[in-house]
């Protein structure tokens, strides 16, 4: 017997849900860039990006809750929405660190060639 139903899961993410989440995330991260803030959440001290953060958490949390519910139904695994938003936030910090290391390596390579 095939383990998956042919019926459409009402909790499954739609392309539109994912698009809204990514757009809200991009808008929020762009605001953080403009404010000179690397780590999401640190902007609250400066009072910046509150509307972008609200849209980001609303759109992405809603979409990730649906995804988590779908994962739970199919695999028994459940994830909470704050964990998923933290994933995006941590990826931002990690990506910046990777860019810094790459720039440093390129500078060292240029100096070695001389």
From TrEMBL:
<dbReference type="Pfam" id="PF02297">
    <property type="entry name" value="COX6B"/>
</dbReference>
<dbReference type="InterPro" id="IPR048280">
    <property type="entry name" value="COX6B-like"/>
</dbReference>
<dbReference type="InterPro" id="IPR048281">
    <property type="entry name" value="COA6_fun"/>
</dbReference>
<comment type="similarity">
    <text>Belongs to the cytochrome c oxidase subunit 6B family.</text>
</comment>
<dbReference type="InterPro" id="IPR036549">
    <property type="entry name" value="CX6/COA6-like_sf"/>
</dbReference>
<dbReference type="GO" id="GO:0005739">
    <property type="term" value="C:mitochondrion"/>
</dbReference>
<keyword id="KW-1015">Disulfide bond</keyword>
<keyword id="KW-0496">Mitochondrion</keyword>
<protein>
    <recommendedName>
        <fullName>Cytochrome c oxidase assembly factor 6</fullName>
    </recommendedName>
</protein>
